[in-house]
Amino acid sequence: MTAPVSIINATKTFVGFTALDNVCLDIAAGEFIVLLGPSGCGKTTLLSILGGFLSPTSGRVMIGGKDMTHVAPAKRPTTTMFQDYALFPHMRLKDNVGFGLRMRGVARAARDERAKALLDLVGLKESAEKKPHELSGGQRQRVALARALAVDPDVLLLDEPLGALDLQLRRQMQDELKAIQKRVGTTFVHVTHDQEEAMAIADRIAVMNRGRVEDFGPPAEIYMRPRSLFSAGFLGETNFLPGVVEALDAATAKVVTAIGDLVLPRRNFTAAEPDPGQQVTLCIRPEHFRRAGEAVRPLTPLGQARIADAAFFGTHYRCHLKPAAAGDPAGDLTIMAHMPPSAMVADGQDIVLAVNAEDVVALPTPAGRA
Amino acid sequence: MTRKLLAALASWLYAALLFGFIFLPVVVLVLFSFQDGRLPVPPFNGFSLRWYEAVFADGKLMAALLHSFLVATVSSLVACLFGFLAAYALARYRLPGSALQRGLLIAPMTVSYLIIALGLLTVLNALGVGLSLWTVGIGHVVINLPLCFALIYSSMGAHHVNIERAARDLGAGEVKVMLLVTAPMLLPSLLAAFFLSVTFSWDEFIIAFLLSRFDVTLPVEIWSLLRSGLNPKTNAIGSLVFLVSVSVLMVLELWLFRRTRKS
Ligand SMILES: Nc1ncnc2c1ncn2[C@@H]1O[C@H](COP(=O)(O)OP(=O)(O)OP(=O)(O)O)[C@@H](O)[C@H]1O
Ligand SMILES: [Mg+2]
């Protein structure tokens, strides 16, 4: 089963501290949503509000069209997969997985059968008679998933389920998680602070910072067209280049920066419409820099820059560059750019940088950061 | 070389004296329970089981044994139950003055059994409750509850909170969470609390003496036997009491504490 979820103006304050600040999210049934953000940004708090372990100070939670704001966890069509798995240490795996059904009054034979089917789903059919302490971390994680899915929840809440696993197992489990979600069709809300994990599994990512959702959209959109400086910086690497909007027309805006002028399409102002004279910050991904005359798409030259250092990464060179622009107000401006592995790159080399204006996103510069 | 030898000798002597001091009375007690004669004093006349026969033939002693057993198990069960409930509440909920409440629960540990017995006696008199094995049981709950509470409370770690949450999340009500999740997880400390309570109740004299009337527990019965003078029979029953206590402690040590150490 599956259900849509709406979080409407949810705010949660602990004594003197706002952990969630007016959060709104609309999640469609069967979506795989990832809450992504740094430690302490309120991910667990938001998940606890969805699961019913916390009540929001204000705001509402709707699940499947019903107001669930003050409904106890047991009465919600949600189950939670806890970060530490929280398996029942004294029960065999099949009893762990069957616990939710036992609470719903399902007879022993029926729930054993369902438990076996779910353990099979997560690849642990042979271990049904074992106890949790006989399992590895990855196996426990699977049992926790099976247990949460056994009651056929509409929404599954996962709090950093892969956090305790080593990198390789993590990549493997995230693929399995995605595959299982596709098979069962349940709405998943998954918390992580690993951006790679988020990109790999999410249908949509909600980027959180200081109790707020800063950006919400498919991974590609968040990466290519971030709607906040935080989300541009948190997901992947990016260069922030201060500039001023100088001229506007119906489709484009001209932005003046220390290293050159750029004419951007107006839709690349993802957070707010441009105003003349407005301070903006341009976000340019390292891989979007080109050397002048290199690409088929039209490029805007950004003047000369000297390679300060370069490191080879297989798929690209990662270079730090010092722009040589005259009258550079930010004398310490450093640009990070990726150069193709076929390029001849040497420290101290001067190159002419360029970028396709389509790839550049402009965001308003917050006051005090000009 | 000689100094090393001397040091070794001294430490052995010290150990022998120490253990002798602790265990000699018990050894003597057990030894003279097998005395073939009327007096449990040296010299040892020969080995005989007649005093054990006498113990098992003594209806009053056997009744007292049964009473002790009943009082110990029932009062320990009650103490464990109350201790568990109090620990659960104080560990899992924010209660007004919880530090004070914890202190109050443990405080009776510091009060002497005599004072507790006198206090209870006064209260029971005032309430017009007659003395019986029940009142002894109440006294034993009073002395064992702090112990049970402290043991169980200290094992209710925060790492169990999420497990209980998971149970609630899967649809378990409060009672089911306690019965099916919390209590089984705490089983080792619940059993430890229970068995320790049993041994304390089993050996306890002052409260049992002051709060009982016609039906008495074993220590009280032994005491009245002693009043008629030393007799190898008292040694025999004493040895039996000792055997029971040791067995319970052995069970605890070998089975329970090993298990908790492993997990
Ligand atoms: N019970 C509480 N009382 C006071 N402050 C709290 C409480 N629970 C959480 N907070 C605060 O709320 C903020 C958000 O906490 P939350 O656990 O949601 O963070 P998170 O995003 O899950 O972080 P992490 O990635 O480290 O798990 C934190 O700064 C935390 O200190
Ligand atoms: Mg968290």
From TrEMBL, chain A:
Any GO BP annotation: putrescine transport
Taxonomic lineage of the native organism: Bacteria, Pseudomonadati, Pseudomonadota, Alphaproteobacteria, Rhodospirillales
Gene3D superfamilies for this protein: 2.40.50.100, P-loop containing nucleotide triphosphate hydrolases
SUPFAM superfamilies linked: MOP-like, P-loop containing nucleoside triphosphate hydrolases
Coiled-coil region: none
Keyword vocabulary terms for this entry: ATP-binding, Nucleotide-binding, Transport
Boundaries of every ABC transporter domain copy: 5-235
Organism: Azospirillum lipoferum
GO cellular component, as recorded: ATP-binding cassette (ABC) transporter complex
Name of the protein: ABC transporter ATP-binding protein
GO molecular function annotation: ATP binding; ATP hydrolysis activity; transmembrane transporter activity
InterPro entries in alphabetical order: AAA+_ATPase, ABC_SmlMolc_Importer, ABC_transporter-like_ATP-bd, ABC_transporter-like_CS, Mo/tungstate-bd_C_term_dom, P-loop_NTPase, Transp-assoc_OB_typ2
SMART domains: AAA
TrEMBL record, chain B:
Transmembrane stretches, start-end: 12-34, 69-91, 103-127, 133-156, 177-202, 236-257
Entry-linked SUPFAM superfamilies: MetI-like
Gene Ontology annotations for the cellular component aspect, listed alphabetically: plasma membrane
Membrane-related topology note: Multi-pass membrane protein
Alphabetically ordered keywords of this record: Cell membrane, Membrane, Transmembrane, Transmembrane helix, Transport
Matching InterPro entries: Bact_Polyamine_Transport, MetI-like, MetI-like_sf
Domain ABC transmembrane type-1, first and last residues per copy: 65-252
Protein family (similarity comment): Belongs to the binding-protein-dependent transport system permease family. CysTW subfamily.
Name this polypeptide is given: ABC transporter permease
Source organism: Azospirillum lipoferum
